[in-house]
Specification:
The structure is a homodimer. The radius of gyration of chain A is 28 Å and the shape is elongated. In chain A, the strands form five sheets. Chain A has a six-stranded parallel sheet with strand order 10-9-11-12-14-13, sandwiched between helices. In chain A, strands 1-2-3-7-6 form a five-stranded parallel sheet, with helices on both faces. In chain A, strands 16-18-17-19-20 form a five-stranded mixed sheet. The first copy, chain A, is built from 26 helices and 20 strands. In chain A, helix 5 packs parallel to helix 7. In chain A, helix 16 (379-382) links the parallel strand 9 (371-375) and strand 10 (401-403). By secondary structure, chain A is an alpha/beta fold. At the A-B interface, helix 6, helix 7, helix 8, helix 16 and helix 17 of A face helix 6, helix 7, helix 8, helix 16 and helix 17 of B.
């Protein structure tokens, strides 16, 4: 335990580093780091087990700053703890190319576990970390059995629905290794939380089945005893309501909304430093005693890490097979010939692509132990249950199937946490229309470059009777707009296999599967067709008969069959029609220009067919092309009726092409 | 009070109508209507005040079936209660063009208050209704002072974060006129709620500040006494946990997950009818005694309605000015010359478009009493506070400013409720990147054709230091993909005025405002420019000098200044450049082809400039056009640095056009 004076010195260092950095950047959030400095000090000085020299050590505790706007708090702690984050990095807060962006970005800064800022997401990620740690320990034992997850959440994090969903799920699964500290400072951007937020958050977490404590967030003794009790509680996640004061220690800004999102200003900073007896002129100052305190902590941590390494070595020696499996798991390995293996296992019968994908997923699951996931209560419809695995419950976590409940947004956020933890390639499934419910998490998976699989079924108005509330129209394109997200809409079993192969090979980002509810026929491809061409995102499924094509029809998913029917009819008219299947436009766009031009020759008229909005298809068919799709909301009726009414029959498509070309 | 036998008969009628309709459609959800039949009977036979002859009567109680998949329950009640919904309509359940689509759609069926199905939304809408009723009563008094809101919610509704957000908000505002009945049937699609949902929902609602009761949902006496107590409770919203059994009354399907989403099958239906002593062969049967019961209820309701009319007449006579204001309010009237009035009030200084819009909104607020709304805790940043109005609190609801808290999704859902209630044109503001958090509600506003204003600021990477988590890239186009949503991105004060004019005139759908954080210069337009051309969505801001244009640059928002700078430089090169400003592509697309061709002449090369994804711009610039935008995530740095790094400077744009054309 440290004496009160050295604690105070360290806390003041955290506060002044934060306010100096915000001031220099002329933008940022100074109040929250000040209010949280006491808690952060205790966490990093006494509890958090980590290794600044080895930031990706699987056995470390995870710290999640869900209140990402308080990024300077985290950067201050990383700097003091000896991570590769210098005072110069802190001085470059919020500047181009720095390790200290406005909100914490795990892909920019070692020691940052996840990217936060969009509120509530960090809580979901933390639940994912806690779950991953439990699941890994249940499967492999020692490597992650001691991992704890610490999360700091703000009022905003708790107001967002995603954190409520995730917390209900965490209580359900009794994630006793999760500790969320609620920064109850009662201040938001618009003023006091009294304006909009007066619920009893602690009681709410009791309702979720959490262990709840209430403390003064500036009282070090209370902070320590609450964290001790939370760690001791093994069967419930812990929620610590810490009453804090924003901008604590700033004479005037203290407890004000202004201190939330604006620099304090030179005068207030000077007054703050004066109040603690510091030189008002000295900026970015780290007293030697504070450096020394964290150096001592680093020595303890290195000792703990070395002990872990020793245990890990012993565990490996005692469990050679398991250790081998663990390495495979951690590498997220998939067989190099996965696609070929999947092709051997292709379902023979005509089915919906959701069924094809579901059948292939069983094979992938056997080959790739990293694959885990579940559905937002639509497993029987989305066909994503891994049949040879059990379901995760509060009593047993060695299985691979998760039941997320009707909580799409938390599902996304939790899967991001699973992926970030290490070892997991998570999948999450729901109806395509409900991708909107989890879009912020999908975006973050793309930004963070995580290999998450978002499996969306019931992919067009052709799902039928459920009607326009359930019928996606704009969603496929809305997903295609997200940078670094691959979107794959397979047309049959073979393309479903390609979807899995692409997604499993794609380590630097997420993949969305777009799958039909309705049955689709197997595509008859040309004799010279090479199955590997599907992996290029778009390919010639049927070449024009007899001559060079004078028309190219590009289609995706269930509409490929319409393109093939149209080709047949139009060739009877004397046209020469090539059918291009384009399951993954992002992959195709990244292919060499020669290949792209070979598939879509310049100067040949193009048609696109996809049962969704048409506007963005112009980039693929050009100004003189023909786009066939649907630019309005759907309707409730059987799918065959909808196909007829909205022009998704062979006859309607043929008619449309004939009259337009 | 009705005797037990007639109650049982009516309940069985509700159940059998529902299962017969699902069976005939061969799709739908039979179990939930059966489980809820007792509660629905009590609500419609004793409590709900409404007028089947006048479904839009402002003084009616509102009933929201948040569990929209149980649509047949609602259709059964509407039929029995005498709405224009015949047995033939019920037989056409889930068929093309019927009044009985798969999920309730308020724009298809009289008596359906809102469109539900996407779970959780109905709870948010119900909170909006409750709030609207209180606000209207606070402003006008009598017309809505007795309105109660009844909502039935399922497990799925409660698991979704949006309902949690909305319920926390309802508790905060003490909406005592809201009664949510929770259909606690413990069954979801994947199986028992035990799989994923074991929190204490009642306790959670106590934490939100609600009045909570727990009952047997099949016991009529308990149902009535709980509703009585809920109505008597005036200072808190009420939550009734009704333990029910899904498919109650079906011998085998009872309490099974299968009964949730699949027809029961002929055998089970026959067994169900046999168990209640009904003829198994008779379908869609309404016993005369049940018809008579609801006819009697209709007489009571008519008497109540007449009494209300009398009170309303008296109120009008006693309050002629207020009654006049009420009519204006209900008509959602805005002055025909709103645009001209706004032009007179144009802010003179250069400001960010968020500031321009915020200043103009003050004027609109004065002219349009229907305008109410708020922000998800970003009012000081989004500039949407109505300065001459007070804030809504639990004690005082006559103001027009709402503090939604950091709850974007509920904000959207509640605003939909405000709009559906009647009289309100709601606005809701947050940062553009967080439009993702509320996208399901925005989609529903477009589907329901509600005049909601979604005000999004901080509209590009040029917001600066907050970094990629806060920088929209794909969002403007993602919104443009939603059918029936207008998206307006003004370039300066004048275009901000046009945005307000378009949005206020647009009665059949929502409008999204896309506004800059950073300051923008006033656009210098040609002398012959007509301000009314802005209302056409796109117009010639600066015509090519000297000759017909050989290049057309189309730009939106803050990038219009880059187009103007590029024109100047390129004309020095000898080019003839037209600058088209395109604040609203949806409006422009609906203009006559002659106008569109006049603005964007065929055969002239085009350039688009917008600080967002470029792909969909191809539909406006064609295959040979040039698109200038950003197709990756942004970064944390000051806006001037980002502009330089990502090519949003005049120099970079000029260079790009020069090298490409």
């Amino acid at each position: 335990m440290h004496d009160a004076k050295s604690v105070e010195l360290a806390v003041n260092t955290i506060k002044t580093l934060s306010i100096d950095a915000v001031e220099k950047a002329k933008s940022g959030h100074p109040g929250t780091p000040m209010g949280l400095a006491n808690i952060a000090f205790e966490l990093w000085a006494h509890y958090l087990r980590h290794d600044p020299q080895d930031p990706t050590w699987i056995g470390r505790d995870r710290f999640v700053l869900s209140a990402g706007h308080a990024s300077m708090l985290l950067y201050s702690m990383l700097h003091l703890s000896g991570y590769s984050l210098s005072l110069d990095d802190i001085k470059a807060f919020r500047q181009w190319g720095s390790k200290t962006p406005g909100h914490p970005e795990n892909f920019e800064t070692a020691g940052v576990e996840t990217t936060t800022g969009p509120l509530g997401q960090g809580v979901g990620n933390a639940v994912g970390f806690a779950l991953a740690s439990k699941m890994t320990a249940a499967r492999f034992g020692m490597p992650t059995e001691d991992v704890r997850i610490f999360c700091i959440a703000s009022d905003g994090d708790l107001m967002e629905g995603v954190s409520g969903e995730a917390s209900s799920f965490a209580g359900h699964l009794a994630l006793g290794n999760l500790i969320v500290i609620y920064d109850d400072n009662r201040i938001t951007i618009e003023g006091e939380t009294e304006l909009a937020y007066t619920e009893d958050a602690g009681l709410r977490y009791e309702a979720y089945g959490w262990h709840v404590q209430r403390i003064d967030g500036h009282d070090h003794k209370q902070i320590r005893s609450a964290i001790d009790a939370a760690i001791a509680e093994k069967t419930r996640p812990s929620f610590i309501v810490a009453r804090t004061h924003i901008a604590n220690g700033a004479p005037t800004a203290h407890d004000t909304a202004e201190s939330h999102g604006s620099p304090l200003g030179d005068n207030e900073i000077a007054a703050t430093k004066k109040a603690i007896g510091w030189d008002a002129e000295r900026k970015f100052f780290v007293p030697e005693a504070t450096s020394e305190l964290f150096r001592e902590r680093a020595v303890e941590l290195a000792r703990d890490k070395a002990a872990w390494e020793t245990r890990f070595q012993k565990w490996q020696s005692a469990n050679p097979k398991l250790a081998d499996d663990f390495r495979t798991f951690m590498a997220k390995s998939a067989p190099a010939d996965l696609y070929e293996q999947l092709i051997k296992a292709l379902p023979a019968k005509d089915e919906a692509t959701r069924s094809h994908s579901g059948a292939l997923q069983q094979v992938v699951g056997e080959l790739v132990p990293s694959l885990v996931g579940g559905s937002a209560d639509l497993g029987p419809s989305t066909k994503t249950l891994l049949k040879n695995s059990s379901s995760i419950t509060r009593h047993e976590q060695s299985g691979r199937n998760l039941h997320f409940g009707i909580r799409e947004h938390a599902m996304g956020s939790i899967c991001n946490g699973l992926s970030l933890f290490g070892g997991y390639i998570p999948f999450a499934s729901t109806f395509l229309v409900f991708s909107d419910y989890m879009r912020p998490a999908v975006r973050l998976s793309a930004l963070m470059r995580e290999q998450c699989l978002w499996i969306y079924t019931h992919d067009s108005i052709l799902l039928g009777e459920d009607g326009p509330t359930h019928q996606p129209v704009e969603h496929v394109w809305a997903l295609r707009l997200i940078p670094n997200l691959f979107v794959i809409r397979p047309a049959d079993a073979l393309e479903s296999a390609a979807a899995w192969a692409i997604a499993m090979a794609r380590k630097g980002g997420p993949t969305a599967f777009i799958l039909s509810r309705q049955k689709v026929p197997s595509v008859q491809r040309d004799a010279q067709f090479d199955p590997r061409s599907v992996l290029r995102g778009a390919y010639i499924a049927q070449e024009a008969a007899g001559a060079r094509p004078d028309l190219v029809i590009i289609a995706t998913g269930s509409e490929l069959q319409l393109a093939i029917a149209a080709k047949k009819a139009l060739e009877l008219d004397g046209r020469h029609v090539r059918v291009v299947s384009a399951p993954c436009l992002e992959q195709f766009a990244s292919e060499p220009i020669e290949y792209r031009n070979a598939v879509l020759p310049q100067g040949v008229r193009r048609v696109s067919i996809e049962a969704g909005v048409t506007g963005p298809w112009r980039q693929w068919v050009g100004e003189n092309g023909i786009t066939i799709g649907i630019d309005r909301f759907g309707a409730s009726a059987p799918d065959s009726v909808l196909a007829a009414k909205f022009g998704f029959t062979a006859e309607a498509v043929i008619q449309k092409i004939r009259s337009a070309s």
